[in-house]
Write a structure and sequence with these properties.
The protein has about 325 residues and is of the alpha+beta class. The chain is about 30% helix and about 20% strand. The radius of gyration is 20 Å and the shape is globular.
């Protein structure tokens, strides 16, 4: 068994220890395979993570072992990996790694990081998101095909508001759509825009799409998880490996691929060839920065004309003025 593997990315060499340790027993993929995968998609990973405070989802003993989320930068952080200070809803702070070169991804992979969870902000301005992220989450009784249908409807909603989304598989059963935005609105405003988009989708297909926060009210519908835009909520980055037995990855898609592609098409073994052939499908994403004025006007109309105000925040967030009660409807009735 090899003691270490040395990989070079962007002119910097990173030492990967115990590369033969098995991380995905069902497929036989090792720690070294994960590191080599991230080297193969390094340009795409860096675009997704560059200058973003990033939480590491670590599986040091592979997917069958213990795992944890590391928000604060490790004490042994190399001096060539910068950090950014982010504030949690509690008011506490943390300094998270902010990759600026591809070797940082390999360094994190050596720690057993499988999935990277970047904030939707840059370290130079951690209060104003530059991405609006929409999570289409299948509920029991629905599947990926239902998420695809919702994504295509979302594309039309976005276009009607002067926005363009960039789709990707979640690496699980759902789909994510990211919209690059000008960093002019805070987390509360971006979340308000996401709620307006979600409600418009729900209006168009109330039998298939829902904004209901409480699981008991969702039914067999696609849940538009608007709270993924709340402070301290993150979504797995494009190209991230997901900790499931078959080693799936979160795969960027072209819109014309969305109707026919399935999550099983993209994994640790297949993505390097796809990346070599197509490059980073999100390479041009940072060239755009859309405005949220129309989406926020839609939110204002919902409130003014239909009495639709805020929706519940996640439980760890402080109570917000105007937010509905955080009580399950069935408990509230009792």
């Amino acid at each position: 068994m090899a003691d270490a593997l040395e990989l070079t990315a962007g002119g910097r060499t990173v030492r990967v220890t115990h590369p033969d340790k098995v991380y995905f027993p069902e497929r036989g993929f090792t720690k070294g395979d994960v590191a080599r995968y991230y080297l193969a998609v390094a340009d795409g990973m860096l675009r997704a993570l560059r200058d973003r405070p990033t939480t590491l989802q670590r599986h040091p003993d592979g997917v069958t072992g213990e795992s944890f989320f590391q928000k604060r930068a490790p004490k042994n952080l190399p001096d060539w990996i910068p950090t950014g200070r982010i504030a949690f809803p509690s008011g506490r702070y943390a300094d998270e790694i902010c990759p600026t070169e591809p070797a940082a991804v390999l360094w994190a992979a050596n720690l057993g990081c499988l999935t990277f969870h970047p904030w939707p902000v840059r370290r130079t301005d951690t209060e104003h998101p530059d991405e609006l992220r929409i999570d289409l989450d299948p509920q029991p009784g629905t599947d990926y095909a239902d998420a695809v249908r919702a994504a295509l409807e979302l594309r039309d909603v976005l276009a009607g508001l002067g926005l363009t989304g960039w789709p990707k598989t979640s690496g699980g059963r759902g789909l994510h759509v990211f919209v690059p935005i000008a960093p002019e609105w805070d987390f509360t405003q971006v979340r308000r825009a996401a709620i307006a988009l979600a409600r418009e989708l729900e209006r168009r297909a109330p039998d298939r799409i829902t904004t209901a926060w409480w699981k008991e009210e969702r039914g067999a519908r696609i849940f538009v998880d608007y709270n993924q835009t709340a402070r301290d909520r993150t979504i797995a980055s494009a190209y991230s490996v997901r900790p499931s037995a078959r080693a799936p990855v979160s795969a960027p898609l072209r819109w014309e691929e969305v109707p026919d592609a399935v999550p099983e098409d993209f994994d640790l073994a297949t993505m390097p060839d796809r990346f070599a052939a197509l490059g980073d499908l999100r390479a041009a994403m940072d060239d755009e920065a859309f405005r949220l004025d129309e989406a926020l006007e839609l939110a204002a109309r919902d409130e003014r004309d239909h009495g639709l105000g805020d929706l519940p925040y996640p439980p760890e967030h402080p109570k917000v003025k105007g937010e509905p009660k955080r009580v399950q409807p069935s408990r509230a009735r009792k």
